[in-house]
Design brief:
Largest sheet: 8 strands, mixed
Strand order of the largest sheet: 1-4-7-10-13-16-18-19
Number of helices: 1
Structural class: mainly beta
Number of strands: 19
Mean pLDDT: 89
Distance between the termini: 46 Å
CATH architecture: 3 Solenoid
Low-confidence stretches: 153-163
Radius of gyration: 15 Å
Strand content: 15-25%
Helix content: under 10%
Number of domains: 1
Bound molecules: coenzyme A
Order of helices and strands: HEEEEEEEEEEEEEEEEEEE
């Protein structure tokens, strides 16, 4: 059995890259859930997922292979976290949120219900993400806006608001 405990905000694809290099069948990866975490029965965890103490994965939520869910992070109902993501301590994901592959959500950020976050996104600590975030972007602040950092062009990247039902 293997697990991988690495994560890197600047090289967010590192977990998936290492997993691909190891080229193991899914059943050879361990999935760890700390006894003080709460995983609702209908939630689904992929291989090589690590769930830290006091994290919560709620009903029908899914956490993709090779993702980390750190201390006290909460993934609410029907949300989907893609492969190789890292949710830092106290992240709060509301219901029906979708997060792509290899995205990194910094300490204490929050994501509004029904928001879609792309692949390889970096969300700064403490951000409140209220609109969709395109792949490859770095956002921060309340409400979250693109930051001028490598991989994110604040002049051309637009956050898009998804139509919502009342
Ligand atoms: C978003 C982040 C990646 C930016 O880091 P960076 O590229 O080094 O950026 P800088 O610190 O140079 O800051 C650039 C600007 O963004 C602002 N900024 C940085 N992080 C911010 C945040 N989380 N929220 C709001 N503004 C932020 C800075 O104040 C600065 O603004 P200025 O240009 O007006 O002075 C980083 O601050 C962050 O949040 N990392 C996640 C940390 C984390 O959760 N670690 C978990 C370890 S377990």
């Amino acid at each position: 059995m293997f697990i991988s405990g690495i994560a890197n905000a600047l090289d967010r694809t590192i977990r998936v890259k290492v997993a691909q290099r190891m080229n193991l069948e899914d059943e050879r990866w361990a999935t760890f859930v700390h006894p003080q975490a709460t995983i609702v029965d209908s939630a689904v965890l992929g291989p090589d997922v690590i769930i830290y103490p006091h994290a919560v994965v709620s009903s029908d939520a899914r956490v993709g292979a090779h993702s980390l869910v750190y201390y006290g992070a909460v993934i609410h109902h029907d949300s989907v976290v893609g492969e190789g993501c890292c949710l830092c301590a106290s992240v709060a994901i509301a219901g029906h949120v979708t997060i792509g592959r290899s995205s990194y959500l910094g300490v204490g950020c929050t994501v509004r219900d029904h928001v879609r976050i792309g692949d390889n996104v970096l969300v700064g600590m403490g951000a409140a993400v209220v609109s969709d975030v395109p792949s490859g972007c770095t956002v921060a602040g309340v409400p979250a806006r693109p930051l001028r950092v490598p991989g994110c062009n604040a002049l051309t990247t637009r956050l898009t608001r998804k139509p919502r039902t009342p």
